[in-house]
Amino acid sequence: MSVPTRYSDTIGESNSVINLMFLQSGSTELNNHLIHSDWRLTSDHAPLTVFIPIVENDINLSKFSIAKNSEEEAAFIKNVSSIIKNLDIFDLSNTDKLEDMVNILTTNTEYVWDKDSKLVNITRHSKSWWTKECN
């Protein structure tokens, strides 16, 4: 059954359905729109509404991180640079020596990361625009 959404003020012209609302096809959750002909007051169009359920999702995620432009980031970069600078790369004559050097780099970088990073919880406020002032 079509319900009019535009009501004609002209005698002899019929009411019509011309307003559009784009909803998800086949979704009982999002196809619950209403036409409010009693809300139109002096307008010739009836307001349309749809109820969209918004579920609060908890994101249970934690990760180690270093804040950009922080003292911890500066310390991490300085320490990793020092590790790289002090690597013994002069005798990489075979695969075993190369693998040893890579393992030293990996172990030392992981140690510095663990020292300079902190565990952060990812939440809905974990966006770049969310600042301490928002709290």
What does this structure look like?
This protein has 135 residues and is α+β, with helices and mostly antiparallel strands. The chain has helices at 71-85, 95-116; strands at residues 33-35, 48-50, 61-65, 118-122. The chain has 2 domains: 1-53, no CATH class; 61-134, no CATH class. It has 2 helices and 4 strands; from the N terminus they run βββααβ. A two-stranded antiparallel sheet has the order 1-2. Strands 3-4 form a two-stranded antiparallel ribbon. It is rod-shaped. It starts with 32 loop residues before the first strand and ends in a 13-residue tail after the last strand.
Individual helix count = 2
Strand residues, percent: 5-15%
The number of E-state strands comes to 4
Helix content: 25-40%
Mean pLDDT: 82
Q: From the helix content, strand content and strand pairing, which structural class follows?
A: alpha+beta
Radius of gyration, in angstroms, nearest whole number: 31 Å
Distance between the termini: 50 Å
Query: Domains counted in the coordinates: how many?
Result: 2
Shape assignment: rod-shaped
| Major pleated sheet | 2 strands, antiparallel
Low-confidence stretches: none
**Taking strands numbered 1, 2, ... along the chain, how are they ordered across the largest sheet?**
1-2
Task: Give the helices and strands as they follow along the chain.
Answer: EEEHHE
